[in-house]
Amino acid sequence: MATDNVASEGALVSGNVDTKRRRLLTAGVGVVGAVGAIALAGPLISSMSPSARARSAGAPVEVDISKLEPGQRVIVEWRGKPVWVVLRTEELLASLEEVTDELRDAESEDSLQPEFAVNTYRSLKPEIMVMVGVCTHLGCSPSYRPDVAAADLGADWLGGFFCPCHGSKFDIAGRVYKGVPAPTNLEVPPYTFLTDTNILIGADGGNA
């Protein structure tokens, strides 16, 4: 009888252990389910972010250039690409005519830009340059080199952009030089002036 009592107590203990195990397993499954739900919710929450979605879709970007000094550049992001806005000096503007014979597409006939930018300055206003800062060769971002006669670019360098990846050169209007890997001028995005110091990049405002 004592043995039976021991067996009964053992069964009782075993039953308690089994009950605890079931509770632990149930709790574990609940935790895993919650983690899975959070993991699924992550991409959903991310996809609902309006600013990220708008930027990737190419929503217009407003730029304030009121504090931009002559010769300076500001960089903003549009469609995941850097867009440069440069306030060109009189000296830089004067260089545009001097380098014409050295350019591959001086008239921008085979390059990407709105109709309003098919001119020497490739812009709405001569002094304001708006350009996509991506080399048309393999997508590197060229350096802004307004320094005239730079030691590493030669005495005839009058300012512009230099791509350090493969040596492509562009003048201060983003026009590509002859004899470099880049096939076309830098891209000019659609844009419009909201005021004298505010530019909306990504919408041409009917300028085209």
3D architecture notes:
Helices cover 30% and strands 19% of the residues. A three-stranded antiparallel beta sheet has the order 1-9-8, with no helix packed on it. A three-stranded antiparallel beta sheet has the order 2-3-4, with no helix packed on it. 23% of the residues are buried. With 208 residues, the protein is α+β, with helices and mostly antiparallel strands.
CATH topology of the largest domain: Rieske Iron-sulfur Protein
What's the β-strand tally?
9
Going across the biggest sheet, name each strand in turn.
1-9-8
The second-level CATH architecture of the largest domain is 3-layer Sandwich
Helices, by number, come to 3
Q: Can you identify the CATH superfamily of the largest domain?
A: Rieske [2Fe-2S] iron-sulphur domain
Features:
3 helices; 208 residues; 3-stranded antiparallel β-sheet; alpha+beta; globular; single chain; Rieske Iron-sulfur Protein
List the helices and strands and how they pair.
Blueprint: H1 2-47, H2 50-57, E1 61-64, E2 73-78, E3 81-87, H3 90-98, E4 128-132, E5 143-145, E6 160-162, E7 169-171, E8 191-195, E9 198-201
Antiparallel strand pairs: 1-9, 2-3, 3-4, 5-6, 6-7, 8-9
Give the structure's gist in a few sentences.
This protein has 208 residues and is an alpha+beta fold. The chain is built from 3 helices and 9 strands; from the N terminus they run H-H-E-E-E-H-E-E-E-E-E-E. A hairpin with a 2-residue loop joins strand 2 (73-78) and strand 3.
